[in-house]
Amino acid sequence: MRYLRLVLISIIAFSFSCKETSTTDSDPDGLYEVIQGETMGTYYRVNYGSVDQVSKSQIISKIDSILFIVNDEMSTYIDTSFISRFNRNEKATSKVSEHFKEVFDCAKRTHQYSDGSFDPTVMPLANYWGFGYSGKVAREKWDPTQIKQLAEIVGFDKITLDEDGLHKTKKDMQLDFSALAKGYGADLIAREMHSLGIDNILVDIGGDGYARGKNKKGNDWTVGINIPDSEAAYTEIYVALKLDQKGLATSGNYRNYYEVDGEQYGHTLNAKTGFPFKSNVLSASVIANTAMEADALATACMASDLEAGLAMIKKLPGAEAYLIYHDAEGNMKEKYTAGFKDHILE
Q1: Are residues 250 and 207 in contact, defined by beta-carbon separation less than 8 angstroms?
Q2: What is the CATH number of domain 76-89+96-168?
Q3: How is the chain split into domains, by residue range?
Q4: 47 with 25: CB under 8 angstroms?
Q5: N or C: which end of the chain has fewer CB within 10 A?
Q6: Which H or E run includes 113?
Q7: Residue 7 is inside which H or E element, if any?
Q8: What element of type H or E holds 300?
Q9: pLDDT single digits (tens) 272-303
Q10: Which parts of 169-261 fold into alpha helices (H)?
Q11: If you average pLDDT over each of 24-28, 94-98, 265-269, which comes out highest?
């Protein structure tokens, strides 16, 4: 049995702030470089094969600029970000950047693929349950009436984007793209570095990553997989995957949850009922053509039943999924799409 949670370096974090700091490390052979720092409330790490015409300082500058743009567009923790201003109903949000459009379109597609299970408008509910930007506080008691009222202002189908800007049907609605932003940041960095002539790249932002080319040994990039258990160390590698020109992301509730009166509830919310989504799925890892797609689809799988999540992924060209779940006896089991096996290093 394989136990799965993607950890390119560390745990996935679904919050982010505007802090970009970079440090560097070098391959002893001088052929591959590492740049790492902090962003979006987590870490980032970029491994790449160096080229003579591009200096490390140039790459650091590009990375910092990209991460600033993503935060400035999509961080709910920055008051002046585009998404924060939209959530506050400020008129300045009529001009929508190409970056925001790209993320919005991916979110819209995933919302449709998942029959509404993936919904970026659950922020009011996330705040209520103690998983949002208002602060992480366990909800000891809950009011069904208030939850029903909050659920009425949730629904991504009530948000539209056209040439006149971004619109919502109810003023109290809020958007949260934290289930796409880290993946999008990884894609942008990989895309920019490739445009500079760098063919061998592995980008990891808080566990969401994109790989292109080969590592310093001349093989496909490999990433570690560990056990979906809150007591397992992040370094407990159980299986490895190989990646090339693919994004990879994992979503799970086993570290981000609260326990109240012996009952656990996680950060994955049911947009239709307003309550935490109950599922036997422990973690969902998705490989897709971009890290942003993988990021969104992994979250969608966690917001869906086991079979529904797998069925969704099977319909999507270029996407593969690996889901870990508890069976009726509490045993840890796994199910995955046929193509996922091709990425597993035996």
Answers
A1: yes
A2: 1.10.3980.10
A3: 76-89+96-168
A4: no
A5: C
A6: helix 98-113
A7: strand 6-7
A8: helix 291-302
A9: 776 677 778 888 999 999 999 999 999 999 88
A10: 181-195
A11: 94-98
CB-based contacts of 143, cutoff 8 Å, min separation 6 = none
Please name the amino acid found at residue 147.
I
Backbone phi and psi for residue 194, each to the nearest 5 degrees, phi listed first? -65, -35
The C-alpha atoms of residue 318 and residue 338 are separated, in whole angstroms, by 12
| Residue type at position 297 | L
- Pairwise CA distance, residues 48 & 58, whole Å: 13
Residue 320 pLDDT exceeds 70: yes
pLDDT in tens, 116-157: 999 999 888 877 766 666 555 555 566 778 778 888 889 999
> Which residue's entry shows tokens 């994109």?
210
Task: State both tokens at 280.
Answer: 């036997």
Q: How many CB atoms lie within 10 A of CB 288?
A: 25
**Is 22 a residue whose pLDDT tops 90?**
no
CB-based contact 186:210 (threshold 8 Å): yes
89, two tokens: 């109903």
Model pLDDT, residue 24:
47
